[in-house]
Amino acid sequence: MIETIPSFGLGTFRVDAAKTTEAVKSALNIGYRHIDTAQYYNNEAAVGQGVRDSGIARDEVWVTTKVWWERLSRDALIASLKDSHTKLDIGTIDLALVHWPSPKGAVPIAETLAALQEAQQLGLIRHYGVSNFTAPLLEEALAAPGGKDIVTNQIEVSPFLANRSLVDATQKSGVKVTAYMPLGEGRAHKDMTLKAIAAKHGVTPAQVTFAWLLARDIVVLSASTNPAHQQSNWDAQKLKLDADDIAQIDALDEGRRNANPSFAPKW
Questions:
Q1: Of 32, 41, 128, 180, which one is the catalytic site residue?
Q2: What is the pTM of this model?
């Protein structure tokens, strides 16, 4: 049984349900052991099918899903996770995240955490965490009953949004950072700095980006339905960047978000 969130995973945001099952299956057969989905993605059933079809033992795969911000009250959250549990159909879900914090604290974080603990007791989930929490919101969550068991804060991190203060605050609190949109919505593929570093090492700009994140002790979510690209992304774990490479990538930070919906907290 995997007890710690694996450092390299497959993200399924914007992956059509029809393609998700094969994408999950191929990734698991390459060696991935961390699959990330969400209720909002509308592909949980396909993710579960891919896990079952892969032939990989269930206890060797870590599956994360997320509860949408409109369903964070006690009854709504339990109902939501029962729905996810049914759709995934893989037994107990390894990790459930609060997808976005409740806007303006409409649902107290203590209520949500209590509901997540109840979900654990019901056998719906094994672990819980948060996503898109600012440093003050994370601090509030950690101080609430059950907060000490938050395992990750999943946030946007890329070479163009290093998100350094939030990453540092999260890691100093003992919570893992998981990065989504690590390629900056595809910008990394075309960036001249990343392409030059990739050429130096004989790899791809995506591999350079993932290696940079892993060097910061950040869990990476890579999204691809193409088995060859999945393999290439997976191989990024072998790449070691030097200090000059890292300094060049650090200099790309613009502090500009891609994910900043109207209900997002004030960053």
A1: 41
A2: 0.98
